[in-house]
């Protein structure tokens, strides 16, 4: 019987790319986005006059907090570049453990967006409060605020639902890449299985791990020492040289 996880397992993503290629592209994309954000934050910290707050009251009260927030955001961007680079390297070099931090970040990010959707359902008035905090010159602000609260909640939930669906698909792609890389790293080995009768050697390539009669995966069997292998007597002694062969 096929498990539900195996039904969703695929080596393709976006209809044409391999999961390794998709994970590499996704990791590079995250690195580029966070590198741009980090560059903007570092520039803002280096030249605060250029990015100074326009409101004098906010500038006097929140200067220290603004600098602290930018430092935290810079550290988060740097961490995201590191995690994305690890995922890219792990998918390219087929190291499954390097993909796990990026996968955990994706799950955490999807969980946060789900909490946002739940909070909108529980507290629908937060949308109106958020719209009132927008600048006066924000495009179509008056038209949006004139809409009914139910319609706003529906539009926002539909938008968040599309984002969550896309994020869940990317999570599935990275997870399939992790399973593919882990399967290759555990099956591409030369395996010797010692039994009571003989010694069997097999080389597995791109195949699922075989299961022995005792229920033990062949990919988990360690290689026996060379001396022990040579000391195993053969089942039937070979005939002496020159003796006639009888079928």
UniProtKB/TrEMBL annotation:
Self-association state and partner proteins as the record states: Homooligomer; upon reaching the lysosomes. Interacts with MCOLN1. Interacts with NEDD4; may play a role in the lysosomal sorting of LAPTM4B; enhances HGS association with NEDD4; mediates inhibition of EGFR degradation. Interacts with PIP5K1C; promotes SNX5 association with LAPTM4B; kinase activity of PIP5K1C is required; interaction is regulated by phosphatidylinositol 4,5-bisphosphate generated by PIP5K1C. Interacts with HGS; promotes HGS ubiquitination. Interacts with SNX5.
Transmembrane segments: 21-45, 72-92, 99-124, 144-175
The keyword Iron belongs to this UniProt entry's keyword annotation: no
Membrane disposition: Multi-pass membrane protein
Biological role: Required for optimal lysosomal function. Blocks EGF-stimulated EGFR intraluminal sorting and degradation. Conversely by binding with the phosphatidylinositol 4,5-bisphosphate, regulates its PIP5K1C interaction, inhibits HGS ubiquitination and relieves LAPTM4B inhibition of EGFR degradation. Recruits SLC3A2 and SLC7A5 (the Leu transporter) to the lysosome, promoting entry of leucine and other essential amino acid (EAA) into the lysosome, stimulating activation of proton-transporting vacuolar (V)-ATPase protein pump (V-ATPase) and hence mTORC1 activation.
Keyword annotations: Cell membrane, Cell projection, Endosome, Lysosome, Membrane, Transmembrane, Transmembrane helix, Transport, Ubl conjugation
Cellular component GO terms held in the UniProt record: cell projection; lysosomal membrane; multivesicular body membrane; plasma membrane
Subcellular location: Cell membrane; Cell projection; Endomembrane system; Endosome, Multivesicular body lumen
Species of the source: Coregonus suidteri
Predominant localisation class: membrane
Name this protein carries in UniProt: Lysosomal-associated transmembrane protein 4B
Family from the record: Belongs to the LAPTM4/LAPTM5 transporter family.
Pfam families xrefs: Mtp
Keyword GTP-binding: no
């Amino acid at each position: 019987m096929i498990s539900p996880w195996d039904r969703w397992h695929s080596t393709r993503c976006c209809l044409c790319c391999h999961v390794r290629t998709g994970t590499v592209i996704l990791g590079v994309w995250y690195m580029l986005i966070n590198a741009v954000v980090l560059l903007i934050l570092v520039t803002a910290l280096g030249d605060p006059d250029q990015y100074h707050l326009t409101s004098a009251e906010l500038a006097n009260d929140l200067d220290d907090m603004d600098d602290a927030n930018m430092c935290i955001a810079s550290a988060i961007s740097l961490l995201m570049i590191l995690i994305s680079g690890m995922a890219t390297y792990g998918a390219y070099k087929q190291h499954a453990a390097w993909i796990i931090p990026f996968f955990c970040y994706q799950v955490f990010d999807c969980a946060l967006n789900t909490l946002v959707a739940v909070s909108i359902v529980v507290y629908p008035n937060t949308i109106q409060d958020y719209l009132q905090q927008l600048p006066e010159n924000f495009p179509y602000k008056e038209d949006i605020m004139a809409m009914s609260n139910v319609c706003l909640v529906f539009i926002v939930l539909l938008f968040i639902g599309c984002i969550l669906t896309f994020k869940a698909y990317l999570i599935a792609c990275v997870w399939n890449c992790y399973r593919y890389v882990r399967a290759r790293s555990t099956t591409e080995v030369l395996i010797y299985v010692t039994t009571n009768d003989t010694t069997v050697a097999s080389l597995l390539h791109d195949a699922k791990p075989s299961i022995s009669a005792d229920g033990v995966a062949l990919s988990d069997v360690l290689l026996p020492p060379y001396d022990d292998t040579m000391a195993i007597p053969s089942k039937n002694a070979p005939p002496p040289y020159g003796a006639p062969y009888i079928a």
